[in-house]
Amino acid sequence: MTQPSSTPMKGILLAGGSGTRLYPMTLAASKQLLPVYDKPMVYYPLSTLMLAGIRDIMIISTPLDLPQFQRLLGDGSQFGVNFEYRVQEKPEGIPQAFLIAEDWLQNAPCALALGDNLIFADHLSTSLQLAAQRTTGATLFAYQVRDPERYGVVSFDKTGRALSIVEKPAMPASNWAVTGLYFYDNRVLDFAKRVRPSARGELEITDLNRFYLEDGSLHVDRLGRGCAWLDAGLPDSLMEAGQFVNTIQARQGMLVGSPAEVAFRMGYITPAQLRTHAQRMGKTELGRVLTLIADSA
Fold it and tell me: Which residues form the Nucleotidyl transferase domain (predicted)?
């Protein structure tokens, strides 16, 4: 079994799949490149990984869509991070991402973010950085939903410790859904190799998480009031995500899901670099706000 590592955590952003639930929009464009208000969807989970302090990030997508992500994101230098790109020839489950990235991981711990998930919360960066700094085990984030049967569901004992994780249960034991953000120690590749395809022919992330649950090293942070988790994989939720971002930005004057702003706040880029990035945005509201942030530094 792989031993605990002091290697900095790496991040994987999984942006594959065919997006059939968003047809016909995704017949011509990747789901994760669709707009969520004023930014492409992929910006939001990318910002989440960066808020965790992760600077080495692999983007995994389909052979058709990967060049579009490379065109949008480049090598990462504009955000003070490093991007690597890999193809997922066929979507065969979330844990497949770790197998694709095996040689790149090089025994490092890893966080994985799904490309259609948006998480917003006060002090989110603190929670993310704590998860990234844990040297052993896995950390998941759970969120209360009205329709838990659509998700992986985690139940808890009276002390708040995770008792079970079940994928899309017919009779959910709780209404706490596991979000599309996962932090793992460097055993994750070993566990991913042990996951076997489910009845639907995919490697299930719930089966991987269960390895950590069974050895007592699974941490589950519950996102409470003041937090929002949006899975933008359906037309209604895509629209709701855009409305949410618009509301926060318009009423509070802060940006949501801006990798450039996160890079600046985290000290990855200088005010001058942020200003240059803002200029590339032209006469957009996003460009104006980024310029204000740079000028106020």
Answer: 10-245
pLDDT at 188 over 50: yes
Q: What is the pLDDT of residues 141-168, one digit of tens each?
A: 999 999 999 899 999 998 889 999 998 8
- CA–centroid distance for 60 within its chain: 12
Strands 56-61 and 10-14, how do they pair? parallel
Q: Which amino acid is at 290?
A: L
Domains of the chain (ranges, CATH numbers): 10-252 (3.90.550.10)
Under 8 Å between Cβ of 30 and 68 = yes
Q: For residue 248, what are the CA distances in angstroms to 241, 244, 251? A: 11, 6, 5
SS3 57: strand
- Nearest one of 122, 127, 236, 117 to 177, comparing CA atoms: 117
Model confidence pLDDT, tens digit, residues 4-57: 555 799 999 999 888 888 899 888 889 999 999 999 999 999 999 999 999 999
DSSP string, 222-248: EE-TTEEEEE--SHHHHHHHHHHHHHH
Sequence-distant (6+) residues with CB within 8 A of 70 are: 85
Cα–Cα dist 214/17, whole Å: 30
Residue 156 belongs to what H/E stretch?
strand 152-156
Query: What is the token pair recorded at 69?
Result: 């992500």
The per-residue pLDDT for 124 is: 86
Quick: pLDDT tens for 255-268.
999 999 999 999 99
Judged against a pLDDT cut of 50, whether residue 276 lies above it is answered with yes
Phi, psi of 139 (to 5 degrees): -125, 125
| Distance from C-alpha of 87 to C-alpha of 100, rounded to nearest angstrom | 8
- Asked if residue 261 lies in contact with residue 290, where contact means CB atoms within 8 angstroms, the answer is yes
Structure-token match 């808020």, residue found? 51
